[in-house]
C-alpha cells in the first residue's frame, strides 16, 4: 500500500479474502504474454461489452450525439465501436499494472520532450492535470523518468471497499501514491516542505469528472454543451503558486502510450477566476476532437443542466 493510503479502507475478513483472490488473479494475468492479453482477452472483452452486455450503450449514444451533432449516424456508429475497443483495452491496461517493473513501465510509456520538461519542473512541485482519455492510469509511470519526483494521484474513493483497496494497490508503490480528493489540499500543505520520501510532489488531477452542482458553479461550453468541471487544480495552483501542465496521452498501439506536456499556468501569472480551468477545458476539447474514441463516453458526464433565468 502507498504512503498516503495506509490509514484508509478497513476490510473485514471475508472482504480481505476476496481482495487477495482478486489480486492473485490480476498478478497472474499481468505476467501473461502481450499477444494473449491484447489480442485474445481484449477481443473477448469487446464482444462482451458491446454485443452481449451493451454496457451503458444508451449513455454512450446520447453523449456522442450531443457532442458531435455534425456527424452522420454511420460516423457515430463507427465511433461507438472504436470507443468500446478502447474500453476493452482499458480493462486490460489497468489489470496489467498488477505486475510492474521499471523495464515494463518504460515499454508501456514513452515521454516526448523529456529533457525540456525536466528542465522546467525538475526542481519544484507541479500539478499534472489530465482526463479520462486513453489509459490515464499510465500517468503514474512519470516517476520512472523523473526519480526525484513522485506522482500523487488524487482520486475519488470507490463505494465498493474491495474494489477501492484493489485500485489503491494498482496505483500505489514506488512510482506513485494516492490521496482522496477531499484530503488533497491538506496532504500537499503537510508534505510540500519535505516531499514524500524526499521527492518533489506531482499532484495528479483528473478534472473531467462530473462534480457536484453548486449555486456558484462556473459553466463552460464544452463539446456543444454547458458543463461544469472540478476546479481543485486551479485553487491549489493559485494558493500554492504551482505550475500546471496538461498531460497528453497519445496512444501508439495496444497498451502503448506516449506522454507529453502542455503548459497551462506558470505558477506566477496573475489570472482571473476560472482562467486556468478554461485553458484546461480548451486543450481537453481539442484532444477529444482529434481522437474522440479515446475519451470515456460511458460516463454520465452531463447529469446536471444549467438553470437558465427568464
| Average pLDDT over all residues | 93
Low-confidence stretches: 1-7
Q: Structural class given helices, strands, pairing? A: alpha/beta
Assign a percent range to the helix content.
Answer: 40-55%
Tell me the total number of β-strands: 9
Secondary-structure element sequence? HHHHHEHEEHEHEEEHEEH
Largest sheet: 7 strands, mixed
- Beta-strand content bin: 15-25%
Tell me the distance between the termini. Answer: 53 Å
Outline type:
globular
Oligomeric category: single chain
Q: What Rg do the Cα atoms give?
A: 20 Å
Question: How many DSSP H or I helices?
Answer: 10
Give me the side-by-side strand order of the main sheet.
1-9-8-2-5-3-4
Describe this structure in words.
The structure is a single chain. The longest helix has 24 residues. The termini are far apart. By secondary structure, the protein is an alpha/beta fold. Helices cover 42% and strands 18% of the residues. The relative contact order is 0.16. The strands form two sheets. It has a seven-stranded mixed beta sheet.
What key phrases describe this protein's structure?
310 residues, alpha/beta, 7-stranded mixed β-sheet
Helix-strand layout with pairing:
Elements: H1 13-30, H2 34-52, H3 57-67, H4 73-96, H5 102-108, E1 109-111, H6 114-121, E2 126-130, E3 149-155, H7 161-171, E4 176-180, H8 184-191, E5 200-206, E6 219-222, E7 225-228, H9 232-240, E8 244-253, E9 256-265, H10 275-290
Parallel strand pairs: 1-9, 2-5, 2-8, 3-4, 3-5
Antiparallel strand pairs: 6-7, 8-9
Amino acid at each position: 500500500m502507498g504512503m498516503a493510503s495506509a490509514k484508509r479502507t478497513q476490510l473485514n475478513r471475508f472482504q480481505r479474502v476476496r481482495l487477495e483472490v482478486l489480486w492473485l488473479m490480476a498478478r497472474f494475468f499481468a505476467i501473461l504474454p502481450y499477444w494473449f492479453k491484447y489480442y485474445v482477452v481484449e477481443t473477448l472483452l469487446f464482444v462482451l461489452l458491446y454485443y452481449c452486455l451493451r454496457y451503458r450503450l444508451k449513455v454512450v449514444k446520447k453523449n456522442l450525439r450531443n457532442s458531435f451533432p455534425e456527424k452522420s449516424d454511420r460516423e457515430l456508429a463507427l465511433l461507438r465501436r472504436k470507443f468500446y475497443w478502447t474500453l476493452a483495452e482499458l480493462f486490460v491496461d489497468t489489470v496489467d499494472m498488477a505486475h510492474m517493473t521499471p523495464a515494463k513501465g518504460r515499454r508501456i510509456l514513452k515521454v516526448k520532450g523529456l529533457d525540456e520538461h525536466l528542465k522546467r519542473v525538475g526542481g519544484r512541485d507541479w500539478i499534472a492535470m489530465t482526463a479520462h482519455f486513453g489509459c490515464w492510469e499510465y500517468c503514474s509511470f512519470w516517476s520512472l523518468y523523473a526519480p526525484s519526483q513522485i506522482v500523487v494521484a488524487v482520486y475519488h474513493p470507490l463505494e465498493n471497499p474491495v474494489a477501492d483497496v484493489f485500485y489503491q494497490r494498482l496505483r500505489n508503490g514506488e512510482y506513485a501514491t494516492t490521496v482522496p480528493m477531499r484530503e488533497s489540499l491538506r496532504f500537499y500543505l503537510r508534505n510540500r516542505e519535505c516531499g514524500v520520501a524526499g521527492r518533489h510532489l506531482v499532484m495528479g488531477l483528473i478534472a473531467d469528472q462530473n462534480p457536484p452542482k453548486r449555486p456558484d458553479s462556473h459553466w463552460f461550453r464544452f463539446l456543444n454543451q454547458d458543463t461544469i468541471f472540478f476546479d481543485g487544480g486551479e485553487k491549489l495552483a493559485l494558493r500554492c503558486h504551482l505550475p500546471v501542465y496538461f498531460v497528453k496521452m497519445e496512444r501508439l498501439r495496444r497498451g502503448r502510450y506516449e506522454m507529453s506536456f502542455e503548459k497551462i499556468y506558470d505558477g506566477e501569472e496573475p489570472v482571473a477566476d476560472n482562467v486556468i480551468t478554461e485553458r484546461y477545458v480548451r486543450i481537453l476539447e481539442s484532444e477529444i476532437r482529434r481522437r474522440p474514441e479515446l475519451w470515456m463516453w460511458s460516463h454520465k458526464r452531463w447529469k446536471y443542466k444549467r438553470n437558465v433565468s427568464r
